[in-house]
Design a protein that fits this description.
This protein is of the alpha/beta class. It is 41% helix and 9% strand. The longest helix has 25 residues. The protein starts with a helix and ends in a 9-residue tail after the last helix.
Amino acid sequence: MYSSLVKNWRRALFSGLLVLLLGLGCSRSTAVPDPPSLPLQARIGQMLLVCFEGSKVSPQHPLVGDIRLRHLGGVMLRSQSSKGSATTGNIVSPDQLQVLTRSIQAVSPTPLLIAVDQEGGKVSRLKTRAGFPATFSFAELGRLNDLATTRQRSNDIAKTLHRFGINFNFSPVVDLNSNPKNPVIGSLGRSFSADPDRVTEHAAQVVAAHRSQGIATCLKHFPGHGSSSTDSHRGFVDITETWEKSELLPFANLVKADLADAIMTGHVYNAHLDTKMPATLSRSVITGLLRKKLEYHGVIISDDLLMDAISQHYPFTESVERAVNAGVDILLICSSDGKIVGETVSLIYDLVQKGRISEQRIDQAYRRISRLKSNLRNRPTLD
């Protein structure tokens, strides 16, 4: 279905990336721990990636217990509020960030995914006002349409993340700029282009740049959020009448080229793909379309399950159960509740004991997450 398009750009693209990617293929371990070597609750803990409050962590911080005792898989860092609130953001300054990432990585019994949204432009959690380098948006890079420039700007971001102990970037956005007035994609300059070829080519440069620094990337938002006219942070998003099959092409191309470390689902509803559920909760979309038709075998991560598109329509217990059974491997949960990790681990454990989620499904997710982590070449440690 997608082979002709892949062939058109792959030869030119790979001429510049081949040596790098082959080198990474040799150095990135594929060894995966045997699931039974960890208790079920610990394997479940690896499936959670959460936000937390504060710009530093003490031994008494709830996050420390979640990492040590519940084997929390990862965290997502947020920028400090422009109002200067010390309780919401995690990123205050370069020096502070380096101490924070080293301290939380040091207490983890397994490599911790430390993630951030650092796309560039308006969606940058490492902000210039906090002392971090300026960045370009994907829209700016797409308009310029110079792959060397995209590679260089992506290298700059990746080097910054590596320097400060961040090993997972929720980037690049591969949504098409189908609706320039889209409040969450087009109007924020988050899409390279409406052309799937251009999106694919520039996204490939972003991925390669991050891999050169040992950082995982995440394509988003499957199966495409670019045509929407509403924001899934704020409510239900129906793209049934606006979505086109071409929105799948960047995902399909990058999967075929082995340039998809992880893929994030969008909280979008499309009756042509599933008549009942939004993508994040849809087995038809995640397992049927992404896993089987596009033949993607890597990590699938949900967008934040507490965004209004999900939380206003589904109880948390239902959204967790549906997401895991749909095929999501990592659940992103941004909550100010310090008990959310323990409660979610217990919830999923109980669902397994009741037979509503299979232990095999947990092991599938655990293996994929372990493989992703084994491909991260660097783990920050205390000096």
